[in-house]
Amino acid sequence: MSDKPRALGVVRLSVGNENQTGEETQRTRISKRADAEEMELVDFAVDIDVSASISPWMRPSLGDWLNNKRDQFDHIIILKIDRIARSVRHLSDIIEWCEANGKGLISCEEGFDLSKPWGRPSPRSWPWSQRRSWTPSRPATRRPGRPCGRRAAGRAAWCRSAAGL
């Protein structure tokens, strides 16, 4: 048995998307990264025609590895972050899962490695990871006589009263 850390390569292609990095390109780049990190690449979790909106645990191949085979690898290697998670919630969930299960998460293109101390905080600090669909922290309130959506001078467009701000 090898003393090398074991890596799982993750390949995902979206449903009907022509303008994306192909399966073979992802496999090749992930294999090269595993070699560079001196890791044994145990297998690939390949999900073809699977949307990134699906949770990693619900994907046919990756879900099986995360739920049932977690003891068979030490690191997850992806070509790009959007191959494993597109939403901030899914990215945060997979990072927390990796930390809780002692797994590293390595991205070939974004240049981070969560198994190394210098790589841990970087994905959470990226500007794009802060983007979310905006939802107010409190429900909008209406003032009598002023329908929501109209803007009076000095008032916020989501109709909060001055007392509620």
Automatic annotation (TrEMBL):
SMART domains in the cross-refs: Resolvase (SM00857)
Protein name: Resolvase/invertase-type recombinase catalytic domain-containing protein
CDD domains on file: Ser_Recombinase
Keyword line: DNA recombination, DNA-binding
An example Gene Ontology molecular-function term: DNA strand exchange activity
Basic residues bias: start-end ranges: 140-150
Domain of life assignment: Bacteria
Taxon lineage: Bacteria, Bacillati, Actinomycetota, Actinomycetes, Kitasatosporales
